[in-house]
Amino acid sequence: MKHLIAPSVLSADFANLQRDIEMINSSAADWFHVDVMDGVFVPNISFGFPVMEAINKYATKPLDVHLMIVNPDQYIERFAAAGAAVITVHYEACVHLHRTVQAIHAAGCKAGVALNPHTPVALLKDILADLDLVLVMSVNPGFGGQKFIPNTLNKLRELKAMALQINPDLIIEVDGGVGIHNLEDLIDAGAMAFVAGSAIFAAPDPKEMISELKNLKTGTLNI
Ligand SMILES: O=C(CO)[C@@H](O)[C@H](O)COP(=O)(O)O
Questions:
Q1: Position 109 in a domain
Q2: Which of 100, 184, 215, 218 is deepest in the core (most CB within 10 A)?
C-alpha cells in the first residue's frame, strides 16, 4: 500500500473554501483531514457542522474527521450524517473509549483514536484490536503551523510493533509539523497516513506539494 496524504482543511483559505476543496479533489491527495475543535478540549475553536457539511458537499474524497472535543459521543451520529468516513476521537477525551469506538462503528464509520504527545502508546493495547486507525499527534493539538515533536518517531515505532502483534491492518496516521523534510523518517518509523496543513497550503503550489508528498518515497509500505 502506498502512503496516504490527508491535507488539513484547517490551513485552507476559508474565504475560498470551495476553490481549495476542488484543488484537493484534483490533486494526488487521498483524504480530506477535517479538524473540529471545541475551545474546551483544546484552546482553539475551528468549525462545526455547517462547515463540515459544506466541505462534504464538494469533496470527492473521504473525510477524515479529527474530533478535538469533549463528550464526542453525543455528536458521532451527526458527524457521520455530515459525511465523515473516519471519525477519530481523543484518548484523553473519552471516559468509556470502547463504547465510543462501538458507537463510531455503529454509525457506519471507521474508528480512530488520537494520542496527545504526552500520552503513551501502550495505553492503547486493550483497544487496538477494535480500531481502524490511530492518530499520533506530533504537536499539541489546537493549532496548525507548529514544530514537529521528535519523540513522535519513538512512539510510531512502538505503535507499529504493537500493531504487528495485535492488529496488522491498523492505519497509523501522524499529524502536526509534517512535511517533505520529515516524511521519509515518519514512513520508516511506521506511519502510513500523513496529515499536512501548513506544508501544503503555505507552499507556492499546494497541488504540486501534495504530489511531492505522495511521491516522495517510491514503492509500497510493508504493512
Ligand atoms: O490537528 C491539528 C492541529 O491540532 C493539525 O491537523 C494541524 O492542522 C496540522 O497542521 P500543520 O502542523 O501541518 O500545519
A1: yes
A2: 100
CATH of the domain at 14: 3.20.20.70
On whether residue 220 sits in a domain, the answer given is no
Ligand 1 atom at minimum distance from 35 CA: 1
Number of structural domains (the chain) is: 1
For 169-223, what is each residue's pLDDT tens digit? 999 999 999 999 999 999 999 999 999 999 999 999 999 999 999 998 655 554 4
Question: 10: domain range?
Answer: 4-215
Domain presence at residue 223: no
Nearest residue (by CA) to ligand 1, atom 10, is 144
Ligand 1 centre distance from Cα of residue 113 (Å): 16
Active site residue 35: yes
What predicted TM-score, i.e. pTM, was given to this entire model?
A: 0.96
ipTM score above 0.85 = yes
Give yes or no for residue 197 CB within 6 A of ligand 1: yes
Span 12-43, pLDDT tens digits: 999 999 999 999 999 999 999 999 999 999 99
Cα 129 to ligand 1 centroid, rounded to whole Å: 27
3-state SS, one letter per residue, for the chain: CCCEEEEEHHHCCHHHHHHHHHHHHCCCCCCEEEEEEECCCCCCECCCHHHHHHHHHHCCCCEEEEEECCCHHHHHHHHHHCCEEEEEEEHHHCCCHHHHHHHHHHCCCEEEEEECCCCCHHHHCCCHHHCCEEEEECCCCCCCCCCCCCCHHHHHHHHHHHHHHHCCCCEEEEECCCCCCCHHHHHHHCCCEEEECHHHHCCCCHHHHHHHHHHCCCCCCCC
Query: For ligand 1, what atom is nearest to the CA of residue 198?
Result: 14
